[in-house]
Automatic annotation (TrEMBL):
PROSITE patterns recorded: PROKAR_LIPOPROTEIN
Protein name as it appears in the record: DUF5004 domain-containing protein
InterPro entries: DUF5004 (IPR032168)
Cleaved signal peptide residues: 1-26
Source species: Mucilaginibacter sabulilitoris
Keywords linked to the UniProt accession: Signal
Source taxonomy: Bacteria, Pseudomonadati, Bacteroidota, Sphingobacteriia, Sphingobacteriales
Pfam families according to UniProt: DUF5004
Length: 146
């Protein structure tokens, strides 16, 4: 009697495992292709800091602009301390997942700086981190599109 009961338990257990095994559906999730980051347009300073100190109320950034075009050129309007001090070319290290931007001012060596492209409050921002001249001073500019 015990032997028959154990056999029924085993059969029931095997049937239950088979039922669970066949009822599981595995969906394959394909990776999403990230879009190419387009930074073309005119960008103004929303916030600027040096070594963690907010410079925005201390310096008039209202006239400064950096304009990027689709051909890889940038133009500075109303110069301020920035990664570069002349117009030139730019390139993102990866068009889909950029972490760095390379500025090549006309007649100068390329300068690479940290690049972040978050969406904050529904608007795209550019965060650039750089040290012009002295490596002890780190600037962070947060730019928004006009």
């Amino acid at each position: 009697m015990k032997k028959i009961f154990k056999q029924k338990q085993r059969c029931l257990l095997i049937a239950l495992i088979a039922l669970i095994w066949t009822s599981c559906k595995v969906d394959r999730v394909l990776p999403v292709n990230e879009s190419v980051k387009d930074i073309s347009g005119s960008w103004k300073v929303l916030k600027a800091s040096r070594n963690g100190t907010d410079l925005t109320p201390l310096v008039d950034f209202s006239q400064f602009r950096v304009k990027f075009d689709a051909e890889g050129n940038y133009t500075l309007v109303n110069d301020l301390p920035f990664v570069v001090n002349k117009n030139g070319k730019f390139k993102l290290d990866d068009p889909n997942y950029p972490f760095k931007i390379v500025f090549t001012a006309t007649g100068a060596q390329p300068l690479t700086t940290a690049f972040n492209y978050p969406v904050v409050g529904g608007a795209r921002q550019l965060n650039l981190t750089f040290s012009p001249g002295c490596s002890l001073n780190t600037y962070v500019y947060t730019l928004v599109k006009e």
